[in-house]
Amino acid sequence: MFSRGIISPYVSLLPVVCLLVSSLWVTESGVEQSKFGLLQVNSTVPTPLKFIRSFSSADDVTKELYPVLDRSLDIIAGPADPHSSIDKLQAPYAVTTDSKHRVIVTDPKAGIVHIFDFEHSRYATMGGRGSRLRSPTGVAVDSDDNIYLSDPAADGILVYSPGGRFLHSLGKMGDESYFQGPVGIAVHTPTGHIYVCDSRRHMVLQLDRKGHILGHFGKRWGGKGPGDFRYPSQLAIAGDELFVLDRGNSRLQILDLNGHFRREISLPEVSFDAGLALDHSKNIYISDGQFNVVNVFTFEGQPLFKYGHAGAKPGEFDAPSGLWIDSANKLYVTDTKNRRIQLFQIGTQP
Question: Taking the CB of residue 79, how many other CB atoms lie within 10 A of it?
């Protein structure tokens, strides 16, 4: 059904900064910076990021879209608008992967979701003209590879099968919705519980697989106290803890999976579309679309390093947003205004 193509990733190896003194200079602020765009906050910690590749369209997966693939796209997304292309990222926002190593990218500007299957040289989309999707924003998958999409324009969560078939909506009661602005979404794999940032209501909601509300964390008009939020935007789960990017309060709150407050990490000002992810060592990654960097912190919240700067070359960003770290400890960065996803391998801290 899908055509095959040969993928030749452009690989650029970022040097270990602490070993290559000749590649460093000191900025006016006294912080060392590499010519590769790496801003080292803690000079004793080498940066464990290695650029692997970037991708932005069906051409990065397949050499050409044969008619049978074109037909499959029509079935999933509806006939393409002749004045716009559906096989290229337009303004990617969030990214995740499933157990088949497919890369799933939301594109709210285009109203579609892109699926890149590099192992089988396949590409497909969900949504498009006439579909239920209006502005797919957050994305997560469950243990069966079902795809959960937050859609703030529709005030709901839409659930699709791994093959792109619509299954049902969550958070709807007739024409009414539990949500007023769902954005970030995460699924706890062992239980199947779904956590959603309802930004406009200043809450995080916990639902079961059928959409029943199990709990809501925070209060209706927002707040600054422990467990309260102002415009929560992103979620990540690590072990038995829920990490919530509390954008309006410029902090990261850590809760247990039932919403009980455990601790918080104060942050510099958090950009509107900041992404959040944790690696296998539980280091915390937060993107900053204003300064075009990815900030990395220890599990306790101590700054480790900043990566990137403005630009369109490998390792450079223009308004980075969604982040995801897969089972192989690879970091996916949604490079929104460059209309691409950048992929990095996270190494091991010595």
Answer: 11
* Residue 75, pLDDT score: 42
- 138: Cβ–Cβ under 8 A, 6 or more apart, which residues? 94, 106, 148, 149, 150, 182, 183, 184, 185, 196, 197, 234
CATH number at residue 77: 2.40.10.500
Say how many C-beta atoms besides its own lie within 10 A of residue 26's C-beta.
Answer: 9
* pTM confidence score: 0.83
Domain that holds residue 122: 21-177+271-346
DSSP annotation string for 4-21:
--------BPPP-TTT-G
Among residues 197, 168, 165, 161, which one has the least CA distance to residue 180? Answer: 197
Residue 165: count of CB within 10 angstroms of its CB: 11
Closest CA to 10 of 342, 348, 346: 342
Residue 63 lies in a domain: yes
First-to-final CA distance of the chain: 46
pLDDT digits (tens, 9 = 90+) for 204-220: 999 999 999 999 999 98
Tell whether 265 is covered by a domain: no
Predicted confidence band of residue 13 (pLDDT cuts 50, 70, 90):
very low
Q: Are 241 and 205 in contact (CB under 8 A)?
A: no
Residue 73 pLDDT grade (very low, low, confident, very high; cuts 50, 70, 90): very low
Count up the domains in the chain and report the number: 1
Instruction: For 301-332, write each residue's pLDDT tens digit.
Output: 999 999 999 999 999 999 999 999 999 999 99
DSSP letters along 3-65, please? Answer: ---------BPPP-TTT-GGGEEE-TTS-EEETTSEE-SSTTS---EEEEEEE-BGGGT-S--
Specify the DSSP class assigned to residue 78. -
